[in-house]
Specification:
Layout: H1 2-65, E1 74-81, E2 86-93, H2 103-109, E3 114-118, E4 122-129, E5 136-141, E6 146-152, E7 158-167, H3 173-181, E8 183-186, H4 188-198
Parallel strand pairs: 1-4
Antiparallel strand pairs: 1-2, 3-4, 5-6, 5-8, 6-7
């Protein structure tokens, strides 16, 4: 009777162990299969996304290179003067003959300028010049002892513009010395301010 009980006991244990081991192996195989399936799906999604992104990039690049200048767009011209290190900027409306032209056509139209930026609403050109900008002035004393205003040309020469009613004799000593040496002023706004201060 004892032998039968032991055999039954071990048989039950063996069945339980076999079932547990079988279930454990089944789970391992099932998890591995799921991981493979997920990896394949993710690879497929990544490939689709990558393909879509590449197609979009091609579309964007094609469109970007085929911008046409639209009506109401502006042209920005930036001139850098090397001698005084100033940059002047001029903004104009695009001439009607440039409307609907492509980037290369607009660039060809302004051969003397370097194209720095192009969109359908704005074009930016730049150039460098070996001289000073046209916003340099000089205040000097004339023969009558009055302050005269000169424009400094790009070649460095001072071109007379006008005489003022400011008598150098009545200026403070420091300002008088600056006028005698030729007081250089940059910009019309600064020029007007200094002349007003002297008056």
């Amino acid at each position: 009777m004892k032998k039968v009980s032991i055999i039954v006991f071990f048989s039950i244990i063996a069945i339980i162990l076999s079932a547990t081991l079988g279930w454990f192996l089944y789970e391992i195989v099932r998890v591995n299969e799921m991981e493979k399936k997920i990896a394949i799906e993710e690879q497929g999604i990544e490939d689709e996304c990558t393909d879509f992104a590449e197609k979009q990039e091609d579309i964007i690049q094609t469109n970007a290179s085929e911008f046409n200048l639209s009506p109401n767009s502006v042209l920005i011209f930036k001139t850098y003067y090397k001698d005084c290190e100033h940059t002047e900027q001029e903004i104009i409306e695009a001439p009607s003959q440039l409307v609907n032209l492509r980037e290369d056509e607009v660039e060809e139209y302004y051969k003397d300028w370097i194209l720095k930026g192009f969109s359908n609403s704005e074009v930016v050109f730049a150039k460098e010049i070996d001289s000073i900008c046209n916003k340099h002035y000089q205040l000097k004393e004339n023969e009558a002892g009055m302050v005269s205003i000169y424009h400094l040309e790009q070649n460095g020469e001072a071109k007379w513009l006008e005489d003022t009613d400011i008598n150098v004799e009545f200026l403070p000593e420091e300002d008088r010395a600056r006028i005698e040496n030729g007081l250089e002023v940059i910009g019309e706004e600064n020029l007007n301010k200094i002349v007003e201060d002297f008056e």
